């Protein structure tokens, strides 16, 4: 048996699988970020610990025999968060999360420093970890002076589970401290942001053993001694492991809170000026690239809040059949944007609202705006040499057939819908544990899920949506100086 933990921004999911990777049981716990000031987003690591304890306690009660047979665990976590520990391992302040924008000035400063993009392979985004520590140094100097180690959320959970300070390559690639091509901490990247090598966790591959489960936790959850904890992965790399998106041309479109177009890469081919993320994959010798938008289903959730209709009600009004682009346009920049703009100041808006505009028109515009933004990501990936041969559609938004067909048509790429089952980040984390425990090779374990249906682009409407996308692209340069 194997365990995968998926630490999301709003909750944790624990998945117990057997030796074939088939689900045996799962448990979830919710928690929420706090926003003490505009642009700030923080979380108390104690919430993660309580969530894991509750979820694994539930699994231990429901599946005691299976839990006693667990051989390995893996953790997936939301990326870029800064969890600061003192020399004794105590948390010094709430974790600064991926969607926190307070360090925009520090990010721009680091991004302009010599060799930073060359070594990290990426733009230094405000959400990355390095600018957060520069902000702490300038605004909370007492905390910075006591910081002995900086851990990402998944690495902090590894520390809680094992007492060891280690992190995997895929998660660490999003710090702006890792030489992503060399898969090692960079002395230059650390120095330019005022950090030291001894403040970094030990690096391991995602499927490599980092430590063993603490005996007291093993006893609490009815697990045997010697359970290994592998390096784990950042959430998107773990999701890629869960759906078998490991190599060149295989990938997915994720319609979650944020939106992602991701593809595996067999080599290291960064193009930072495109705002594409080029990160180490969670297994040795592989990388992946992705374009990221900050508000995908979050855009529909926002419209739900202001209209009083649930996201499902809004989607139902559109039906399942595309009828061409609407006149209304929406920019989905509710929290700024990453790919391709790297703009933390830009904000969302509608264009072409008139007296006859309806709630249905606004919903269609929101879905189209997200689809167009994902097309921006796809175009940036293609510019870096990436192929988008085989894409799955995953995430909560993929439950809308209308939205999936819309995105397939805008991207002009078929999108496959996985069959029902567990195939996300929690499964990817469990699969990494399986490889680490010797249950099989990466190729044997990281396989794609069965496909329920493949939704092809609507050939009759691709031209109309291509024209609408071209018109939509003109909006950002026209309004970016107005926010």
Structural features:
483 residues, Nucleotidyltransferase, domain 5, seven-stranded mixed beta sheet, 19 helices, globular, xylose metabolism, D-xylulokinase activity, nucleotide-binding, kinase
Describe this structure in a few short sentences:
This protein is of the alpha/beta class. 36% of the residues lie in helices and 21% in strands.
Please give a structural write-up.
With about 475 residues, this protein is an alpha/beta fold. It folds into two domains: about 1-230, ATPase, nucleotide binding domain (Nucleotidyltransferase, domain 5), CATH 3.30.420.40; about 245-420 and about 450-483, ATPase, nucleotide binding domain (Nucleotidyltransferase, domain 5), CATH 3.30.420. The chain contains 19 helices and 24 strands. The strands form seven sheets. Strands 1, 2, 3, 5, 13, 14 and 15 form a seven-stranded mixed sheet that branches. A seven-stranded mixed sheet has the order 18-19-17-16-22-23-24. The longest helix has 25 residues, at about 360-385. The N and C termini lie far apart (about 50 Å). About 55% of the residues are buried. The mean pLDDT is about 95.
């Amino acid at each position: 048996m194997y365990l995968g933990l998926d630490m999301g921004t709003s909750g944790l999911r624990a998945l117990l699988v057997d030796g074939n990777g088939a689900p045996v049981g799962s448990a979830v716990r919710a928690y929420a970020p706090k926003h003490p000031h505009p642009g700030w987003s923080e979380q108390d690591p104690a919430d993660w610990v309580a969530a894991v304890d509750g979820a694994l306690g539930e699994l231990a009660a429901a599946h005691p025999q299976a839990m006693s047979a667990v051989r390995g665990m893996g953790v997936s976590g939301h990326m870029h968060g800064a969890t600061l520990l003192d020399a004794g391992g105590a948390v010094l302040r709430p974790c600064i999360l991926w969607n926190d924008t307070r360090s925009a000035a520090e990010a721009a400063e680091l991004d302009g420093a010599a060799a930073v993009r060359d070594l990290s392979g990426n733009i230094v985004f405000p959400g990355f970890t390095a600018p957060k520590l520069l902000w702490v140094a300038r605004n909370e100097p007492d905390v910075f002076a006591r910081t002995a180690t900086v851990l990402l959320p998944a690495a902090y959970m590894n520390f809680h589970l094992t007492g060891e300070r280690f992190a995997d390559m895929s998660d660490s690639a999003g710090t702006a401290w890792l030489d992503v091509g060399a898969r090692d901490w960079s002395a230059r990247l650390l120095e330019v942001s005022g950090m030291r090598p001894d403040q970094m966790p030990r690096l391991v591959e995602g499927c490599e053993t980092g430590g063993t489960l603490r005996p007291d936790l093993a006893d609490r959850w009815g697990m045997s001694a010697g359970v290994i904890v592998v390096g784990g992965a950042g959430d998107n790399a773990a999701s890629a492991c869960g759906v078998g998106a490991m190599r060149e041309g295989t990938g997915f479109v994720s319609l979650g809170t944020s939106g992602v177009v991701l593809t595996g890469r067999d080599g290291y081919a960064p193009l930072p000026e495109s705002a594409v993320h080029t990160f180490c994959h969670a297994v040795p010798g592989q990388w992946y690239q992705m374009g990221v938008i900050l508000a995908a289903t979050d855009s529909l959730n926002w419209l739900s809040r202001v209209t009083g209709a649930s996201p499902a009600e809004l989607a139902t009004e559109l039906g399942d059949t595309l009828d061409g682009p609407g006149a209304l346009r929406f920019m989905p920049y509710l929290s700024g944007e990453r790919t391709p703009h790297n703009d933390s100041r830009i904000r969302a808006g509608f264009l072409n609202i008139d007296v006859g505009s309806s709630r249905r028109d606004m919903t269609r515009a929101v879905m189209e705006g997200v689809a167009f933004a994902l097309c921006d990501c796809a175009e940036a990936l293609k510019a870096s040499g990436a192929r988008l041969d085989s894409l799955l559609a995953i995430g909560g938004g993929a439950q809308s057939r209308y939205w999936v067909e819309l995105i397939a048509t805008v991207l002009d790429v078929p999108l496959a819908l996985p069959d029902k089952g567990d195939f996300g980040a929690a499964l990817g984390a469990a699969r990494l544990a399986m490889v680490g425990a010797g249950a099989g090779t990466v190729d044997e374990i990281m396989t794609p899920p069965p496909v329920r249906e493949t939704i092809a682009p609507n050939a009759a409407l691709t031209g109309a949506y291509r024209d609408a996308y071209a018109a939509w692209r003109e909006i950002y340069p026209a309004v970016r100086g107005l926010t």
